[in-house]
Amino acid sequence: MFQTEKLIATQAKAIESAQVLAQLAIENAKAIADIHYDATKDAVLATQVKAAQILAIRDVKEVLELFTVEEAQVAVSEVSAIQGKVSKVISHSHKEVIGMIESAIDESKLELKKMVKEISGGAPGGSAPVINTFDYVFDSTLQSFDQAYAASKDAYTSFEKTIESTMNLFQDQYAPSKKAAPKKQKAIAA
After folding, report:
1. HEC states along the chain?
2. How many CB atoms lie within 10 A of CB 94?
3. pLDDT at 182
């Protein structure tokens, strides 16, 4: 059975993991807040510039000329870039959390296996068939858990890639098209 020291050590590890996860969450929230702050600051500046241009206009038709398709495409591209930055922060965080979870799972499995060995070691004589059956069931359960975890991890990775490719497609579709500079024709000497 678990001794008091093992229980305390396990709880200490759990608290440490919770602290690391909390710190990671704070860092990610700060990174995302910084991205949104920068985007908001840029948007306010752009709005001020447009407002100044609109206030300087005397003819109503000129106001409509201020808002072009190219500017809309640039705005969409900027929004996509911001979304890309947020996605990178979240993806990086996801990978760190996955690593921590996998480490905790591996440690838990080792502790469970040690506990099973300790319990099995103290079993009365003649109980070997029961212990072997229990070990088999225990190992099968751990393998099933590993398979389920791997399947869910693969599903999430697939979902993440789908979202990323959709964002890339969206960005490619609405990104400002680069117009070729008009070519100067050379005069042909006769």
Report:
1. CCCHHHHHHHHHHHHHHHHHHHHHHHHHHHHHHHHHHHHHHHHHHHHHHHHHHHHHCCCHHHHHHHCCHHHHHHHHHHHHHHHHHHHHHHHHHHHHHHHHHHHHHHHHHHHHHHHHHHHHHCCCCCCHHHHHHHHHHHHHHHHHHHHHHHHHHHHHHHHHHHHHHHHHHHHHHHCCCCCCCCCCCCCCCC
2. 14
3. 46
Query: What is the spatial distance between Cα 31 and Cα 28, in angstroms, rounded to a whole number?
Result: 5
For the question of whether the overall pTM of this predicted structure is more than 0.90, the answer is no
**Could you tell me if residue 10 is left (phi over 0), alpha (psi between -120 and 50 degrees) or otherwise beta?**
alpha
Q: Answer left, alpha or beta for residue 176, where phi above 0 means left and psi between -120 and 50 means alpha.
A: beta
The span from the CA of 181 to the CA of 43, in Å, is: 29
The beta-carbon contacts of 149-153 under 8 Å, at least 24 apart in sequence, are 149/105, 153/98
CA distance 51 to 41: 15
Q: Which amino acid is located at 113 in the chain? A: K
Task: Name the stretches of the chain with pLDDT < 70.
Answer: 1-3, 7, 170-190
